[in-house]
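As a warm-up, study this chain.
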Amino acid sequence: MPHQPSIILYVSNPIASAAFYTTALGLTAQYASPGFAMLSFASGLDLGLWKREAVVPAAANQPGAMEVALALPDLDSLRTLRASLGARGTPITQDIETMDFGTAFSVTDPDGHRIRLFVPAEAA
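Now compare it with the structure written out below.
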């Protein structure tokens, strides 16, 4: 029976990517090596960062082919995080915008993976 769910992203440098996610989103590092890093969200979801060249079988998709979406509790939290990430120089690929599902903005990590931060429509 499966246990804890996790998301795995293929990255060029797991240690550098772990530093990005720890600093930018406050994730907790569980393990970090040159080939793989594991971080945890407060919700308990794990984020694995696997060195692209070490993935078996070889990775076929390119960064940005999927996104990680993270719900925030309210618009003030969304605006604060947007300002913080922008001040750090994180690439903002979509500024705060109201969409069908809620209010959101998007950034990319050092490998070009999309991260969408949003407040669900019912909470906005």
